[in-house]
Amino acid sequence: METDEKTTTAPSRLSTARSRELGEELRRIRHRARLSSGFVAEALGWSLGKLSKLETGSRGTSPWEIGSLIGRLGADKPTRDRILAIATEPDTGSFLRPHGDAPDTLVALSLHERVARSITVYEPLTVPSLAQTEDYARALTGDGELVRVRIARQDGLRGFGHPDTVLYVHEAALRSLVGGPAVMRDQMLRLTLMCGWTRFTPRLVPASAGFVPALARPAAVLTFAAPVRSLAYVETDTVTVFQDDPQAVVRYEAKMRQFDSLALSPARSREVFARWADVYDREAG
Fold first, then answer.
1. Secondary structure (3-state) at 108
2. How far is residue 177's CA from residue 174's CA, in Å, rounded to a whole number?
3. Confidence at residue 264, expressed as pLDDT on a 0 to 100 scale
4. 95-120 pLDDT per residue, tens
């Protein structure tokens, strides 16, 4: 076991967004290979604790050892390339994750959401993805795989211990006809029902609030149990942009405080969502 002692001297560390993502990718391919953590650790001459900490993002290791691990797990080339890219990317305070076409699209985002303590999201023109119905998401994106991922993300936030989630919805999203009156009716009903869910709080930013620069662009902030630092992200059509630089996150948190001051109360928001559901129901005939 002398080799194992030499390769396990890296101390436990505070997990970061990238180390958690790397660990999740490694855990997923091990499960896909149907190999136990004990078997893999023994095959590599590692301690079980080393592999466990690597999969939870609480320790690091060298790219060479990462390569040995994914080789032992039989990962295909696209998976190997993706994992090695994560393992070797510099820590600059921000990073991109392309959505791509694989079934694992947005795995990073869903991972961070599942382990977050709180999630706060704002969208200026559409209903936030964490509140979208399947029909609304399909009409909005035209991408069946992306719809599947979005619904899976929602399901992942409804289990035991799920994070406190606040979704700021601008009134412009209620007025924008996506997919027709029936689709909008069901989407407004979904928002209305979500107002009664435990630890979910949709809140409406009314058009009467006027314009402030913070309202122009979407934003999201995730917090975690102390002392893990917060994470901000913005979704685009092709990539999700993550930022965990403390100064950048502070600016996003300031935006969220502005939304809190501009938005209607949860009870008042529910009334408006329900009223729009009635409007679209009449239009749907």
1. helix
2. 8
3. 97
4. 888 776 544 446 677 778 888 999 99
Topology of the domain covering 2-91: 434 Repressor (Amino-terminal Domain) (1.10.260)
- Lowest mean pLDDT: which of 111-120, 154-163, 198-207, 211-220? 154-163
Q: Provide the token pair at 245.
A: 């630089």
Q: Assess contact for 26 and 83: CB atoms under 8 A.
A: yes
Distance (Å, rounded) from C-alpha 228 to C-alpha 37?
25
Spatial distance between the Cα atoms of 263 and 247, rounded to a whole number of angstroms: 25
Residues 6+ apart with CB under 8 A from 85: none
Parse the chain into domains and list their residue ranges.
Answer: 2-91, 95-284
Tell me which architecture the domain covering 95-284 has in CATH. 2-Layer Sandwich (3.30)
Q: How far apart are CA 60 and CA 28, in angstroms?
A: 17
Kindly state the tokens that stand for 181: 């009156």
